[in-house]
Amino acid sequence: MAHLGARLTRIAPGVVHIALPARPEVTQQHGYFHAGATSSIADSAGGYAAFTLFPENTEVLTVEYKINLLAPALGDHLEAVGTVLRAGRTLTVCQLEVFAAQENGTRKLVANGQQTLIRVNRTAQ
Amino acid sequence: MAHLGARLTRIAPGVVHIALPARPEVTQQHGYFHAGATSSIADSAGGYAAFTLFPENTEVLTVEYKINLLAPALGDHLEAVGTVLRAGRTLTVCQLEVFAAQENGTRKLVANGQQTLIRVNRTAQ
Amino acid sequence: MAHLGARLTRIAPGVVHIALPARPEVTQQHGYFHAGATSSIADSAGGYAAFTLFPENTEVLTVEYKINLLAPALGDHLEAVGTVLRAGRTLTVCQLEVFAAQENGTRKLVANGQQTLIRVNRTAQ
Amino acid sequence: MAHLGARLTRIAPGVVHIALPARPEVTQQHGYFHAGATSSIADSAGGYAAFTLFPENTEVLTVEYKINLLAPALGDHLEAVGTVLRAGRTLTVCQLEVFAAQENGTRKLVANGQQTLIRVNRTAQ
């Protein structure tokens, strides 16, 4: 995430936002964000959202996710929102949304997904 | 749908609800709805939701869907809600939710999904 | 499954086949199998395939699946094939395929999917 | 892709392989490839695989994909394989596989997915 230039912009129980500014490393020739960047921050937002609800000494792993790329991701920055739909002892399911935001404040849903995560106990390493 | 005993309970632009009462054909030995029934009404609710936004002489086909079965589907009836997230000329994407409802009014999210549909022109047959 | 008229036609470690003959309950006006029937037998084939690898006194639950409906499901019967891709202690992932078979022996892939399942210990009931 | 250090290692009709060597930009502290990198090369392999079957003056866009992260992606390099399952006029469906390969030749499936793509006519820009 740091490598891409992404940062956490909101952390609340079961909800995390990640912002990714437009930069050459994550955009294509016409200024659109790469699908890979869009998906990566969506996956991370869901992972952190799940993690906010976990007890100490646990970790979160993505089991799987599915994402629809709804529209070209063109904007000043992307905002990924991960929201826990169901938190279980073992599995957690999150909704993933990615918005493209312009400097003028307009915001458009460009990707929507769903993710399954598993809680694992942290082991000494 | 008719075969399962399902009925449309709400039709609005981009949103359709389908109710499925508990019956032996769609439930297991302990009264839980079959996953197949849960998924079928979710798929249908999304298909009809997309269809509400289509012009005349078109049809809708499910391209694919993904569904998480979040909790045992136990209740008096199931309610599937299909909501259009993005309507395009060719492809439409819907959110799918299924709730298990009890007679006393409690309602629990038991499945959540996402679906891609395609619009096709109706041909004379 | 029995309600739909489906039957297990192959059970091997990590692989299960289910056949579903064409019948009015599972087909539409033009003889195509309902998407709901196609998905149901795919989900079941994957569930049983996972179950073949589980120890005694355990059960299998579908966590989620994703299915692409590739072509109209027209034929004498459907054959769903569930194949374990990865078997873990907690989670198992299966590939799902559904073929439409004609009486003359032709066979066409009509749906393809991927499924995550969880193993749970059976409790006395 | 170039940014990540990935390169196409096989291009055949309906099948494309992409290799991604382990590098600090795409791996975590313990040498595992990031899920984002794994998913990105899987998505790209499927996109190129579809593109091999398209006529001139067309482009490919990912509609959606679903991916299961099956095992930790530890190795000398990753190899993503995109294979067309069904090629249609409008939509193409691909299977996605990612293997982690060691220098000693061992190769392990670490991710498996399924992807829907759409063909669009290239417009002058």
TrEMBL record, chains A, B, C, D:
Record keyword Cell inner membrane present: no
EC identifiers of the protein: 3.1.2.-
SUPFAM superfamilies: Thioesterase/thiol ester dehydrase-isomerase (SSF54637)
Family, as annotated: Belongs to the thioesterase PaaI family.
Keywords of the record: Hydrolase
The keyword Repeat is annotated on this UniProt entry: no
GO molecular function: hydrolase activity
Top-level EC class as recorded in UniProt: hydrolase
Thioesterase domain ranges (all copies): 30-103
The species this protein was found in: Streptomyces aureus
Protein name: PaaI family thioesterase
NCBIfam families named among the record's database cross-references: unchar_dom_1
